Amino acid sequence: MELTREEEAIQGELSGIDTDQPTQDPDETQGSDETQGSDGTQGSDETQGSGQTQESTVQPGPQPEPADKDNGGWWLLGGLLLAAAVIGCVVVQWLRKRTPQQPHTMTQVSDQILDLEVAPRTNDGIVTGAMQDVGDRDDQQDSYGIFDLQSAQRGLLAVVADGMGGLANGKLVSSTLVRCFQEWHRSAPEMPPQDLLLDTAIRSNMKIEQVLAGAQRSGSTLVAALVKDGYLHFLTVGDSRLYLYRGGGLLQLNREHIYQEELAVKAVNRRVALSQVRSDRQAHALTSYFGMGELSHVDRNDEGIRLLPGDKLLLASDGVFGTLTLGQMEQAMALPPQEAADLLGRMVQEVGKPHQDNNTAVVVEV
Predict the structure, then answer these.
(1) Same domain, 178 and 123
(2) Where a domain ends, among 99, 120, 141?
(3) CB within 10 Å: which end of the chain, N or C, has fewer?
């Protein structure tokens, strides 16, 4: 067949093309880890593996090169990129779980007490952490506060108050307690730490009587710990607990004001059987709490407890120690304060206890 002049010109141009080197669109880019979004999702990696196009070449002769000659290579590359993307997402999620969370602010964990301070670290090198969760209840009755005023002169004060959910105004009483300790810790004249705590308890009880005047009966427990000059002073009412963590073990420092303690005394005096100490249905009923008027019991130490470097304190409501074992709490307390508090909260949730109570924990490390 004879070629026209135009066909001869086209054939001449085609003869100058190098058919051994396929051309590629200059705008086409290979998928890479740099395309990964900040939210951990892949951007263009998956689409560029199988969806990129190669500029076609024209070859002379009756047998053109098959168009899908290199498709197998592109599918392999796409598969490798997709696998790398999945592995990258898994690593990112693992790193996020390993990264310690920032200390809670009071507005995050106790929305009823917005003006309380939380001091992650004091100028004495004391580090704190806190956790609070509503559990399987309709309302949050617990309150807590951590106060130090960034001054070693007054020391660091940590308070946990567990409002009695079975009574009305439990949150009102617990938050009033924490506010009273906050305000008097700031404004009280200079006095020994043990006297400061006792004086604050007296003022708090008077304040609660005023708040509840004419209202339905209500109440709250209290655990307050004051760390000053390397010594611990505490005052507790009710069944909230104060622990000292030292050498990998937890030691409860306070005695709970529950009916079981009175049953134990009666058992020693042979007024009740030993079995009744634990089997009595009212064994865990509170025998002393703020809101009852005249308190029956107050637990405190007159001489300060010397704290050693690395010692930790745990202030906890019964929603924590009533759900977790001592071993679980010791496992959490081996971590830095905020991580320890967060792990305690996660452990409580993982137990999945029916009707789980409000749970609050404050951790202090010296």
Answers:
(1) yes
(2) 99
(3) N
131 and 92 in a common domain: no
pLDDT above 80 (res 94): no
Q: In the structure encoding, which two tokens stand for residue 112, read together?
A: 């009823």
Own/partner pairs for 263-268, CB < 8 Å, 24+ apart?
none
DSSP assignment of 13-76 equals HHTTS-TTS----TT-----GGG--TTS--SSHHHHHHH---------SSSPPPTTTTHHHHHH
Whether residues 322 and 350 fall in one domain = yes
Q: Are residues 329 and 180 in the same domain?
A: yes
Residues 91 and 114 in one domain: no
Is position 3 within any domain?
A: no
How many separate domains does the chain show?
2
Q: Tens of pLDDT along 117-148?
A: 444 555 468 999 999 999 999 899 999 999 97
Distance separating alpha carbons of residues 273 and 288, to the nearest angstrom? 24
Partners of 243 in beta bridges: 252, 314
Structural domain that includes position 81 = 67-99
Q: Report the distance separating Cα 220 and Cα 164, nearest Å.
A: 5
Per-position b or e across 275-305, b if 16+ CB within 10 A of its CB: eebeeeeebeebbbbbbbeebebbbebeebb
Cβ-contact 192, 146 below 8 angstroms: no
Residue 109 banded pLDDT, cuts 50, 70, 90: very low
Angle, helices 170-187/193-211, rounded to nearest 10 degrees: 140
